[in-house]
């Protein structure tokens, strides 16, 4: 075991109130840990400073529930990716969360990693975030003294690995309205191999069409900006239009108004720009059952 | 701190550092060297053990996390005198060369076959995607695991 001390105390919180009380007592010297698959590495590799205490929230029952009400779902922050993959309710009402979770890492990681961890870690390449964005999710947060607040996910994400969380606050769940019957959704990840890879680019789509007109369209893309982003300019060009519009190649240049890809060791900026447009064209045609664009 | 947990159905109480990883506790404090450490990043699966029956990377699992939980290591699944079916079949098929990844594959494959006894080839490949092998090229590993699946009656 490497000699450097990573933390001095490890608490297993038994309940949400237990966790918040521990956090209040510990002050800035404590960090939350759920699955730990991101944070253990960040601490041991020096990307996060060592702390005095880790507060493990992974076995708190209230944080691992998947709740389906008539019009909405609430997914506990400590729901593991494997739990998501095995949930009938998620499959029926928000299947793109399963498509996203399936692309993350491998089985061992998914058995411990949590949806909350993926969001709060807030990598620009996070795979759960675009899916939660097109579901118009809110983030439910608890603080000391039982304070609760809810904030749209878009506003929760402040930048590369930066989120709107104050000292001692804990994300408890993600809340979203169940998409209308007949909605279609998908999630795609561009990656160099079929597993154990970070997204070069990822895309989530939620669409609702009737009478051949696009009634609702939500598009979110990751690895193309400091946070995953909704492609609002492209959405505006599509909504209210006949579905055939998605076959027009020149339509997709408008994504440059919403994405700011960089060149890094995974891909160049130009590659990401091209793939963003090509993937959108391909997947929008697919979701609306149209042959791929020719114009 | 005092860690109280079960390993291969045996109860242990150990004094550990709060920041020790499960892989190091199993190997160094319990002498269970079957679990290998390779990447220490959760990328290779050589350190795979079962936590309450689920495969996890023990290199990324703080030992303190498994308080009052149950761990199964490769030693708990079988040994040279009494190999389990996966260990036996991997050996028969020549699906092991240096052997370093093999315990991890045994853990993942045994869980896969337990939960999905009629797994098709694509499911086997997906079920093993958290385990890397640098020697064999995977073909014989997959064939060995596939040979243990039950075909559904069509």
Structure summary:
With 295 residues, chain A is an alpha+beta fold.
Topology:
The complex is a heterodimer of chains A (295) and B (154).
Chain A (H helix, E strand, L loop, with lengths): L8 E4 L3 H11 L3 E4 L5 H6 L8 E4 L9 E3 L3 E5 L4 H5 L2 H6 L1 H8 L4 H4 L4 H7 L6 H7 L3 E5 L5 E5 H4 E3 L2 E2 L6 E8 L6 E7 L10 E10 L2 E10 L6 E2 L1 H7 L30 H19 L8
Parallel strand pairs in A: 1-3, 2-3
Antiparallel strand pairs in A: 4-5, 5-10, 6-7, 6-10, 8-9, 11-12, 12-13, 13-14
Chain B lengths: L1 E6 L2 E6 L6 H8 L18 E4 L2 E4 L12 E3 L1 H4 L7 H8 L9 H14 L5 H7 L11 H8 L8
Parallel strand pairs in B: 1-5
Antiparallel strand pairs in B: 1-2, 3-4, 3-5
Helix pairs in contact in B: 3-4, 3-6
Description:
The complex is a heterodimer of chains A (295) and B (154). By secondary structure, chain A is α+β, with helices and mostly antiparallel strands. In chain A, 28% of the residues lie in helices and 24% in strands. Chain A contains 11 helices and 14 strands. A 5-stranded antiparallel β-sheet of chain A has the order 4-5-10-6-7. In chain A, β13 (213-222) and β14 form a beta hairpin. Chain A is globular and about 60 Å long. Chain A starts with 8 loop residues before the first strand and ends in an 8-residue tail after the last helix. Chain B is of the alpha+beta class and 154 residues long. Helix content of chain B is 32%, strand content 15%. Chain B has a 5-stranded mixed β-sheet. In chain B, α3 crosses α4 (102-115) and α3 (85-92) crosses α6 (139-146). The longest helix of chain B is centred in the C-terminal third of the chain and has 14 residues, at 102-115. The model of chain B has no long low-confidence stretch (mean pLDDT 96). Chain A binds chain B through residues 1, 5-10, 12, 33, 36-37, 40-41, 44, 54, 56, 58, 82, 105-109, 111-112, 194-196, and chain B through 1, 17-21, 24, 28, 40-43, 45, 48, 51, 54-57, 60-62, 64-65, 67, 108, 126-127, 129-132.
